[in-house]
Write a structure and sequence with these properties.
348 residues, four-stranded parallel sheet, 9 helices, 16 strands, disordered N terminus
C-alpha cells in the first residue's frame, strides 16, 4: 500500500495511495494539543495542493456541507501559525499567515470548515490555547510543523508550491453571503466609484472591507467601541482605510438615524447582516437614494427550532420583507441555512 516513506528531521512522512499521512515523533516535552498520535490520512490536502497549483480553489460559503459523493473533500485553507519572519523564509503557496501569538478568527473561512495547520517548531501555552480555540469551531485535518509539511510537498512533487522569501498570504475570510450574492451575482453597484454604502451593525468590518475593495465608499456603524476598533484594524490590514468610515453609534436610540455625522450624504446601498431593528426599515426607505439597494441577511422565525434567537423582535417573519417592500423591485427573497443549520434571510 505504501508508495514511499520519507524520514526528515526526526519526523516520518508516509505517502499512501489513499492520501498522505504525517506522524510527528512523540517527546515528553510535547504538548498533547499538538500531537497527532496516528498518521494523518489526508487526501483533502493533496486535493488542496492540486487546486492551488491549478488556481481553481474557491473559498467555502456559509452553510456548505462536507462532500458526500465519495470524492475527497478539499481543505478550506492551510493556516500557518508561525511568526511572520518564519513564514517569509518559506511557506506553502496558498497558505494564510495567522500567527498564534496574534491570532485573528476573522481571517478564517466560515466555521466548521476543514483546515490544515502549520505549527511552530516549539510548543508553548499560547500555541496550545490557540489550537484549542481552533478545534472548538473548526474541523482540523492535520496539525504539523512546517518541516513535515514541506517534506510532504517535496515528496509529492509540489516543490513549485514552496515559496521562499515571499510574504504573500491567502485571503480566506468571506463577507456576508447575501451581500456577496448581491454584488457579485445580481450586479448591485454604485452609480460611480466612491458611491456611498452603509453597513449597519458592521461588527469587525468584513462587509465594510468587502465593499471598499469593490470601489464603494463604505461606512460601518456599530455601537461597540471594540468592534469599531477591530473594523478599523481590518480596513488597515487590507489597505482600504481611506475608503472606509467607521461610526460608533446606537441606531436604536431616538433621533440617531440617519447618522448626523454623514450630513446630507445619502447612500446608494444599505446592508444589514444578522441584526434586526424594524424601525430602520422605514428610515432606510426614506434615506436611500432613488435606485439604491437594501440588503438584509438576518435570522428568520425558523430559528426557534434551534433555540436562539427566539424573540420575535430578532426574527424576520415569513413574508414580512416582501410585504414591507412590495412597492420596490425585489431582486432576491430567499431563506437559507447557516453553517449551524439556523435559517437566515437573503433579501435584496
Amino acid at each position: 500500500e505504501y508508495m514511499g516513506t520519507l524520514v526528515c528531521c526526526g519526523r516520518v512522512v508516509v505517502c499512501c495511495n489513499s492520501g498522505l499521512g504525517v506522524a510527528m515523533a512523540s517527546t515528553a516535552a510535547s504538548s498533547p494539543q499538538r500531537l497527532e498520535r496516528e498518521p494523518l490520512q489526508c487526501p483533502e490536502f493533496a486535493s488542496w495542493l492540486q487546486g492551488v497549483r491549478a488556481g481553481t480553489l474557491v473559498p467555502e460559503d456559509e452553510g456548505e456541507e462536507p462532500r458526500a459523493d465519495g470524492a475527497a473533500e478539499v481543505l478550506a485553507g492551510l493556516i500557518d501559525l508561525r511568526s511572520a519572519a518564519e513564514f517569509f523564509k518559506s511557506h506553502a503557496r496558498g497558505a494564510l499567515l495567522n500567527p498564534c501569538t496574534a491570532f485573528k478568527f476573522r481571517l478564517l473561512p466560515p466555521r466548521r470548515s476543514l483546515l490544515g495547520l502549520v505549527l511552530p517548531d516549539e510548543s508553548d501555552a499560547v500555541l496550545d490555547e490557540c489550537l484549542g480555540m481552533i478545534r472548538t469551531w473548526y474541523r482540523v485535518s492535520f496539525a504539523a510543523p512546517w518541516s513535515a509539511v514541506e517534506a510532504v510537498l517535496l515528496a509529492l512533487g509540489f516543490d513549485d508550491l514552496v515559496a521562499r522569501n515571499d510574504a504573500s498570504s491567502a485571503v480566506l475570510w468571506r463577507a456576508s453571503p447575501c451581500l456577496r450574492e448581491a454584488v457579485d451575482r445580481l450586479d448591485v453597484r454604485g452609480s460611480a466609484d466612491g458611491a456611498l454604502a452603509v453597513d449597519i451593525g458592521c461588527g469587525s468590518g468584513r462587509d465594510v472591507v468587502f465593499l471598499a475593495q469593490r470601489r464603494w465608499h463604505a461606512v460601518g456603524i456599530d455601537n461597540g467601541p471594540k468592534q469599531i476598533a477591530l473594523a478599523r484594524e481590518f480596513a488597515e490590514l487590507h489597505d482600504v482605510a481611506t475608503a472606509v468610515e467607521l461610526l460608533e453609534l446606537d441606531v436604536e436610540a431616538p433621533g440617531s438615524f440617519p447618522p448626523a455625522a454623514l450630513g446630507d450624504r445619502r447612500p446608494e446601498l444599505v446592508t444589514i447582516c444578522r441584526y434586526l431593528h424594524r424601525p430602520l426599515f422605514d428610515a432606510v426607505r426614506a434615506w436611500l437614494l432613488p435606485g439604491g439597494f437594501f440588503v438584509l441577511h438576518s435570522f428568520t422565525e425558523g430559528c426557534r427550532a434551534f433555540g436562539r434567537p427566539r424573540h420575535e423582535k430578532h426574527l424576520v417573519l415569513d413574508g414580512e420583507l416582501a410585504r414591507r417592500f412590495a412597492d420596490w423591485e425585489i431582486l432576491l427573497n430567499d431563506t437559507r441555512p447557516m453553517e449551524d443549520g439556523r435559517p437566515v434571510s437573503y433579501f435584496v
